[in-house]
Amino acid sequence: MSDNSEFRPEARSPHGFQDRRARDLAGERAILEAVSAVYERYGFEHLDTPAFEYADALGKFLPDSDRPNEGVFALQDSDEQWMALRYDLTAPLARFAAQNWETLPKPFRRYAFGTVWRNEKPGPGRFREFIQCDADTVGSDRPEADAEIVAMAAEGLRAAGISKGSAVLKINSRKLLNGLLAQARIDDPAQRLSVLRAADKLDRLGQQGVRDLLGKGRLDESGAFTPGAMIPAGAIDSVLAFLAAGGGDRASVLAALSPVVGGSEEGNQGLEDLARIDAALKGMGVSEADARFDPAVVRGLEYYTGAVYEAELIAPGDARVSLGSVGGGGRYDDLVARFTGTPVPATGFSFGVSRLAAAMAQFDWLKAGLATARGPVVVIVFDQALMGEYFAVAQELRDAGIAAEVYLGPSGMKAQMKYADRRRSPAAVIIGGDEAANGTATIKDLDLGRELASAVTDNAAWREGRPGQQTVARAELVAAVRKIVDGGAA
Amino acid sequence: MSDNSEFRPEARSPHGFQDRRARDLAGERAILEAVSAVYERYGFEHLDTPAFEYADALGKFLPDSDRPNEGVFALQDSDEQWMALRYDLTAPLARFAAQNWETLPKPFRRYAFGTVWRNEKPGPGRFREFIQCDADTVGSDRPEADAEIVAMAAEGLRAAGISKGSAVLKINSRKLLNGLLAQARIDDPAQRLSVLRAADKLDRLGQQGVRDLLGKGRLDESGAFTPGAMIPAGAIDSVLAFLAAGGGDRASVLAALSPVVGGSEEGNQGLEDLARIDAALKGMGVSEADARFDPAVVRGLEYYTGAVYEAELIAPGDARVSLGSVGGGGRYDDLVARFTGTPVPATGFSFGVSRLAAAMAQFDWLKAGLATARGPVVVIVFDQALMGEYFAVAQELRDAGIAAEVYLGPSGMKAQMKYADRRRSPAAVIIGGDEAANGTATIKDLDLGRELASAVTDNAAWREGRPGQQTVARAELVAAVRKIVDGGAA
Questions:
Q1: Hey, where are the domains in chain A?
Q2: pLDDT(B74) > 50
Q3: Do domains B22-368 and B375-489 have the same CATH topology?
Q4: What integer is the mean pLDDT of B81-85?
Q5: Residue B73: its pLDDT value, please?
Q6: What are the start-end ranges of the E strands in A380-482?
Q7: Which CATH class is domain B22-368?
Q8: What radius of gyration do chain A's Cα atoms show?
Q9: Is B339's CB within 8 Å of A395's CB?
Q10: How far is CA B429 from its chain centroid?
Q11: Contacts of residue B392 in chain A, CB cutoff 8 Å?
């Protein structure tokens, strides 16, 4: 490619980007396939938008900014316009919906999956490129649209392989807290935002920490001081009562919230929205265990305007141990308006596919997927004159649905067994002159014999009897290999 | 998101990038799934590398170039290093293989699929972002590795849905032409490249055009002159005889080529390589119709060093009409050496997924995939009091594997029918007060009744008897809908 034969670039990937091998990818693919199928059953249409958007369309950046690459990967096109790689799948959806609104079926239900990029400082486990999988309904203000998104998320987690009881959707509405604050006559937007931020820290700081942040402020252990929201003592009590109102079934949470937020118009709206979400969830058979109302769910993004939801994984065997969020979403009304000036109600959910895949690998929720990370059956090249027979054997195995290959490196039994070991192959097939003459084949069960493989030093040693090695009639080869492969995958 | 409420960006995607809807994506996904499964059966491991590589690692560009963005999308990272979006999947594989060579199973067999980007001038049907799907074997110099790649490509096309006889793999070896030129004592690299380029134009210019380009040059109809390779008349005859030696079965092509190129060492090597490829293809059961030897296959890229292959689609019903290339590849030895200095033999194939998907849609090779582009069954909202029942109906349908949704826009029968029409829904379910009281449901077959849907003006007209409309017992609902959906997909 390059004519500069003196220059040898260092082989390395850019900071914050990772190569992923089969075992890392199997979980992710299984999730995307399972979740896509659920989205399609709910009538959501697959949409793919480009990796690039114009920077002004992405919305985070002012178009006249000199170098709009804070947080995103941006570059100037040949016509000087700034383009940036998408940082999520929602901003491109808003652009697409605004661009095609006249001709789209409305409400527009779309799902999408793909890579998003963040130009942030990488760290351990923090990458600048990852996969999201989203579903959004654009153009419906019905709370039932939120209920459907929640039901899909719950069903998607189940379809991906999460065992029953190991995931919960937690639902809240921004209108409830807004109503509570309206009742307490706290109207300043900055003050409201401080309340929201304080509430978001309940998990981490506990009741007293949040109480401090709602009031005069909080001094942490390092001596750093965070200024408080400075709301009145009565309002602080109401907010804390509100945050603590979760726990029971959906109807009882609504009953508990009613006296706290029911006095304001927005609070009443929030209660009615949640009641309608509850009814729709019941219609769709979503259990109380799968979807709960939890007033302590905040979610950071300021743009949410109604229901918000969060998918949380729970440690198998201990319902008290949260494994953290693997997705979330909510209702937002302003994204399309950025383009058209007309607010369009929308609601959606995004799976954090990489986090979910990591959790699924950790808890063995993905047997089928991980089986594909096993290597193929290796047909050993023992005698160059038999290459045609080796290829025929490999093809027979493949035609029976068993991954198989003829070893194509330089010959030598040791190299071939080392190869099969690195590939985590379940079995090797050996056909030498004797087998060819007798109409037989020797099969080595590598899981059984793996611990001995590294001790093999020459062909003669190899041909001695070894555990897991059997000689079968050539016609029985596929059946015998299948027995080993099926046993190993279970 | 933005605080600048005055500014309204225009909703448009960047030049040369496209949004793709479900019907565009169904074919592509079916191809990727089918081809991936074939690759895995052949023992190839899934690998995913980042979208970005350092510009020097991509190899097209000198690292000291001032602005290395010719042909690629490049930007400077925060540490001033130039990164670029990958323009194919081979250059990142070379970087990965060089970086991990010590610990990889060797030969390393990997497949990959994903987006690649080219910063080129867009045009009709020419995009700056598209999907590739590759398989490569790195670290084997055996011609059998090439045979395997060809067998996988043929099987992949079949698995993706191409009907038998509608695709052919055409195989050649660079060594043959090189041998022929060596015999004619044409050693100048520039002259050899001119011969290669002339040979590549046989399809377009015919025998005489290539003869001119091999000799003194060619004046085209517009009056433009292309200088010729200036090789001797005898060598021109040999090259033309070589290019015309295709046509019969693989053994007879080899027999025809033997006198033309067999006198040189490299020509003999090429003949032996192709003979071994033929034997391995036979072992794998790849028919003469699926894989041919064709000396006229050149493929542009200079870096190929041995076998080259091209997948060509053929018009159904007329074997003489080529629909063009949908993929290709070959053997290359220098990509890993760019990093390590040590040549590593490699061979691979890349599917042009978008072109293949377009051809498959055109020839209806994708019934299963296109069925997913149908909309969901729409449960009509006729009575707000029955919302719970509507969600239960939709869930019953989904649990039976039928895509279904409750309409969630503003009510009104006309809007709902228009929606179902835009979604290309097969059926609508209507449950009003009467049906609810009687324990029945009304089902509308929308394919049958679609032409009348636009004439519906009010609810009363709708409720009159119409073609394709039936009322069934509520317990029979799912079975009746399935009958319509299955009929429509067939």
A1: 22-368, 375-489
A2: yes
A3: no
A4: 93
A5: 93
A6: 404-406, 427-430, 440-445, 469-473
A7: alpha beta
A8: 29
A9: no
A10: 38
A11: 283-285
pLDDT digits (tens, 9 = 90+) for A335-365: 888 899 988 999 999 998 988 888 877 776 6
Chain B within 8 Å of A283 (Cβ-Cβ)? yes
Which residue matches tokens 């290539």?
A: B210
Task: Count contacts between A and B (CB, < 8 Å).
Answer: 331
Q: Give B443-476 pLDDT, tens digit per residue.
A: 999 888 765 555 555 555 555 556 688 999 999 9
Q: Cα–Cα distance between B402 and B393 in angstroms, integer? A: 11
A residues 168-187 near B, CB within 8 Å?
none
A285-299, A324-338, B285-299, B351-365, range with the lowest pLDDT: B351-365
Any chain A CB within 8 A of the CB of B423? yes
Q: Which residues of A touch B107 (CB under 8 A)?
A: 408-409, 419
Question: Do the Cβ atoms of A95 and B13 come within 8 Å?
Answer: yes
- Whole-angstrom distance, CA of residue A483 vs CA of residue A475: 14
User: How far from the centroid of its chain's Cα atoms is residue B46's Cα?
Assistant: 17
Stretch B143-159: mean pLDDT, rounded? 94
Report pLDDT digits (tens) over B113-142.
999 999 988 888 789 999 999 999 999 999
| Interatomic CA distance for residues B305 and B235, integer angstroms | 21
Q: Which fold has domain A375-489?
A: Rossmann fold (3.40.50)
What distance in Å separates residue A176's CA from the closest CA in chain B? 22
Closest by CA to A278, choosing from A398, A171, A400, A166, is A171
pLDDT at residue B400 above 90?
yes
Contact B73, A51 (CB under 8 A): no
Do B313 and B358 contact (CB within 8 A), yes or no?
no
Percent of chain B beyond pLDDT 90? 57
Report CB contact under 8 Å: A148, B405: yes
- Backbone torsions φ then ψ of B325, nearest 5 degrees: -80, 135
* ipTM confidence: 0.86
Task: Tell whether A57 lies on the interface with B, counting CB pairs under 8 A.
Answer: yes
Percent of chain A scoring above 90 in pLDDT: 57
